[in-house]
What does this fold into?
Amino acid sequence: MAPIARARDLVKVYGAGRAARRVLDGADVDVSGGELVAIVGRSGSGKSTLLHLLGGLDRAESGTIEVAGVRLDRQRESGLTALRRRHIGFVFQSFHLLPELTGLQNVLLPARLAGDGTRAAARAHELIGSLGLAEVADRLPDTLSGGEQQRLAIARAVVNEPVLVLADEPTGNLDAEAAATVLGLLRELARGNRAVVLVTHDREASALADRVLELRDGRLAPA
Ligand SMILES: Nc1ncnc2c1ncn2[C@@H]1O[C@H](COP(=O)(O)OP(=O)(O)OP(=O)(O)O)[C@@H](O)[C@H]1O
Ligand SMILES: [Mg+2]
It folds into this structure.
């Protein structure tokens, strides 16, 4: 299968001088089309940091990252923004829904930003239906449960049909049933020319993955 994401020798340092900490220290990742890859590791090991780099939300000190054939480390901000809008879907550890927009408007936002309004409305409604959100999609996020907000965040991340979906603990705030719905959707998304990278503490989520990688001492290795 075609490589969707490939990172080599990533180094990420937070802080400076004696307080500097190499959170990533030579991390390599390969993700192919059709794959669901789970990333595990203790709290503070750098999982969210790695996802932010793969999603072009932050930059590494050194190393290379390629997503959908584009070298992220060689892009300016404008190039990264365009790539994120078109090809990457991000589900944050804490949903990050915009509070002044309804659920449906949140889901449609990426399609608007990418200038893809036509097909997106149909896709948004389909996603909202399949995630059991039809009844709540017209409400504002702060009137919704954590699980409803998380499912909306997932619908928003995938509405543009990105080739790479990055999900940071997407089941952390969900009950067993909602978690199963979300994992089922992520599993289904990882098909053909699309891949999912899932950060998780959840054993059931890891069990669903094609591969589980552990982040330890700044590097990734099979768990
Ligand atoms: N912006 C930042 N400035 C300084 N240090 C940071 C920053 N972001 C993260 N860190 C530190 O880097 C380390 C890795 O953080 P990260 O959020 O990637 O961990 P994580 O594996 O996602 O943890 P968790 O499982 O708790 O979400 C932590 O020690 C954290 O305190
Ligand atoms: Mg994290």
